[in-house]
Design brief:
132 residues, mainly alpha
Length: 132
Amino acid sequence: ITSGRTASAERKTGGGETNSERLVQEASEVKIGRTISALKQMLQCFTVTREMMVELSVIIEREYQTSDDRVRAVQQKLSQWKQDGLLRLRAPYRRRHAENGRAEMTRRLGHAPRPGASRPGGRGVGPSRRIR
């Protein structure tokens, strides 16, 4: 069916319509590629399998009435994975997340900040700085 429609489009417009169809398809593929790339970057600190990325890609490629509906669908899937225990922070990010949590709790409790915490970079300088 598609090839017949394409052939008739070429006859009608001399190939112009098929070129525009091709451009639209390429543009959507580029958009989907960018979306997947952005998802990979967003999810880099989590344990995400290839199957999970494919499932997210399918969700993103679906037709939605609004962009908000698409975002809600992705958020719902991520929440489901989190509840099921499939979506977890990777080890290096767990440590950083825990450190940030301790710093936040210290700030909330009203304790004094670390020496040098107000400096750019948020870390102390000199001998008091922890060496890793």
